[in-house]
Amino acid sequence: MTDSIKRLICPRCQRPQRTCICGFITPTPHAVEVLILQHPLEVHQAKGSVRLLNLSLPHSEVMVGEVFAEPLLRQRLAQGGKLSVLLYPDSPEDEGLKLSTLPVLDAALLRQLAGLRLVVLDGTWRKSRKMLYLNPLLQQLPRLALRDMPASQYLIRKAHVPGQLSTLEATCHALMLLENDQEKYRPLLKAFDLFVARQMACRPDQPGSC
Questions:
Q1: Among 97, 118, 139, 210, which one has the highest count of C-beta atoms within 10 angstroms of its own C-beta?
Q2: Is the pTM above the cut of 0.70?
Q3: How far apart are CA 176 and CA 167, in angstroms?
Q4: What is the greatest pairwise CA distance in the chain?
Q5: What is residue 60's predicted lDDT score, i.e. its pLDDT?
Q6: HSE (CB half, 13 Å, CA atoms) of 169?
Q7: Alpha-carbon distances, residue 139 vs 3, 99, 176, 185 (angstroms)
Q8: Measuring CA to CA, which residue among 99, 120, 124 is closest to residue 40?
Q9: Mind listing the pLDDT tens digit for each residue in 11-60?
């Protein structure tokens, strides 16, 4: 394969054609809108799961940044009159950051799926905490935390804390919880497993790597 062919970019997934992920895209209907706030250093991360997630969820959007302009972020979080809920774990370390007191998440509101927006931070644990710290509007959102999750299949990146999931896995499990549907997102999670396997096979230390 020549260098010129290697550099060809897929117009859909924006990846080199030799590592195109379009074959893993799994269109999945979802009732809860998804807004992904992606750290700039994750945009060109070949191991990242956001591109596959965004192409698979029709009602999802990606905004890139570390610090977002407050008027723009406020408008986006309130757009359509939806309730934005932040997907973020309970963490005793938050106290050290002196973050705002979390609003109480009314369980009744979670039953109004069409009126919900799930906000997801995409970055390493350290980067996502910094994004939360630097954007006070995010601190004011009611928070959804995942608990007792299955082991991550994200073998191509090292987890820094036990139970840490990829952005795609965490989002799927959050949508499963909110929509009370364990089956709808399994095909996308299976496609993600295949994506991870392909990435593992493409590592330089693997015989016949991509």
A1: 118
A2: yes
A3: 14
A4: 58
A5: 98
A6: 19
A7: 46, 7, 24, 28
A8: 124
A9: 999 888 888 999 999 999 999 999 999 999 999 887 889 999 999 999 99
